[in-house]
Design brief:
Elements: H1 3-16, H2 20-40, H3 46-69, H4 73-87, H5 96-110, H6 118-128, H7 134-145
């Protein structure tokens, strides 16, 4: 079953279970997927649907910071719940220890040294480990390159 079909089925299930947060989050995700498909003029692949989810998560994280700064903790908590719903669809990301190990292995394998090789390291890391958290990887990559 494609992610798109899974999304439709999960929307129906959340409606039957009267789970408002999940229902609303998934409806919004579906709307974004449909918008992207309209722009491209074709159905999205599963990888592209995951990219839509990642963009929505990133947007919600930025919103949380703004809500907390404005003293709107209740709205920030709702956004956090929506992030949890969307993250359930994403493949498990590498944790910090796994990311460190992957970076160390690539540095040794490719003979990288210095900040000048940061771009090459990140490109290769993303290619070999698509589930790596880019922000965490960039924080760890600098010290690994010395």
């Amino acid at each position: 079953m494609t992610l798109r079909a899974t999304l439709d089925a999960d929307i129906k299930r959340s409606m039957l279970e009267k789970d408002e947060v999940r229902r609303d989050t998934l409806r919004q995700a579906k709307a974004e997927v449909l918008l992207e498909e309209t722009k491209l003029g074709r159905d999205l692949s599963d990888a592209e649907v995951l990219d839509v989810y990642r963009r929505q998560i990133k947007s919600r994280r930025e919103s949380i910071e703004q809500y907390r700064a404005a003293g709107r903790a209740e709205t920030a908590d709702r956004e956090q719940q929506e992030i949890a719903v969307l993250e359930a669809y994403l493949p498990r990301q590498l944790d910090e220890a796994e990311t460190r190990a992957a970076i160390a292995a690539l540095v040794a394998e490719l003979g990288l040294a210095g900040k000048k090789d940061l771009g090459r390291l990140m490109k290769e890391l993303k290619a070999r480990h698509p589930t790596v958290d880019g922000k965490l990887a960039s924080q760890l990559a600098g010290p690994a390159l010395g």
